[in-house]
Amino acid sequence: MNDMETDAIVAAAQQGDEGAAVRLIELYYRRIYAFLRRLAGTDADACDLTQKTFNQVWRMLPRLTHPGSVSSWIHRIAYHCYVDWRRAAPAHEARSDAWWAALAAGGEGPDDQAARADLAASVYAAVERLEPDLRLTVHLHYYQGLTLQETAEAMSVAASTIKYRLRQAIQELQTRCGKEEVVDER
Amino acid sequence: MKTEEHIETVLRRAPAPQPPANLKQTLIDEVSLPGRSPADQGSRGAFGAQSWLARWWPALGAGATSLACAVLVGVQEMTIQDLRESVQALSTQGAVSAPAPDGASSLLNQGTVTPEQEIERLRRLVVDLGQQVNNLERLAAENQELQTSLAKAPANFTPEEAAALENARQRALSITCVNNMKQLALATLLYANDNQEAFPADVTAMAKYINAPQLLWCPADTSRSAATDWGSVSAANCSYEYLMGDATAYREPNRVMFRCGVHGHVGIGDGSVHSRVAKEHPERLVTKDGKLFMEVSKSQPEGR
Fold this sequence. Notes:
The complex is a heterodimer. By secondary structure, chain A is an all-alpha fold.
């Protein structure tokens, strides 16, 4: 779906079209849940935060005069909900390397992709140990698939800052994971 | 593949956690669009109109107000136009029914006037206007005579008129002379005040305290003329006798500082000027130690 179609759905929702609101949920709830699940660490907290995110989306919908990237906007709201939740309940469950390992293993066939899964797990775990800004940048750009511009809008910084942070993040991940030669499977 | 690129690939392929099955329905059930209470969630149509109204009421309000003002102005214009037409109609009707200038009511509006009657009325009007013209011409002639008589030379006056005019003229010249002497007396005292009570040797020494050299000339003095500048001041321009030029002069209230040879006015040390003392009361002027003093008599009026 292109931006124009998304903007039309948002405009309809602003006019009170419930169908448009449902359409927005269908477009974004999986991604927002995944985003928050990676940050929050538990299914329950992620569901909670997803609900709070969309409640906030409906509340702030009238103020959205220039949607721009709706994806960035909703991700920004989701991240703010996560930050508020972190401040209110700092003792949340820390994501363990095992969780990322299980997640990585679940993405591909464990039998013939074991090495890759191991590397992926270590990369994902290393991401969670990055500085908050770098971690969020990685989450939004790589995990959520936002473009550089969308990531910049979601984080309210310039695109050049995002590029810099991504470069920094990759370099740190290289350092933490070690520079290993990966056999090209093709 | 370089490690950096591989890391990026790994990151992009990060698997996404799947949401619980009921999360979507939960989110749909909790949809709460702005402007709608939970009870109105089902009535989409009503909510749509209300939201549209809430969005557009400022523009609609302004437009409605403008429209109302335009209608009001239009109605007022129509009313004004009607009033104008009424006034015009009344004016026309009033002009037709106005009485004739001579007071006789015109019979035209009654439709019964005869040409002979109208001719008679006009004849009377012509006679009246002719009389008024004659009066105006007479008044104009009188006015001209008065103006001419005012411009006549005094020689044409009667002896009494000429004497009265001459007395008035002389009195004016005397008053002007007194004013000149007051200014000269003041200038002298100011000079003394600024110079440790030393008096000027002559009138030209206090030039900066005197407005113009013309003040040194009495307007009744026909043997002299007024100086045009301080550089040309001489005895030929100075009507007033300055009597404080001696080196021993000091401030003495009754000492005569100036004397007018034409009128006999004297200005004394206290700054006052006494009219015609030198001519009409010379006994009041006494000389002591080479200085001229004026005795101030209690019976005499005070100087100016």
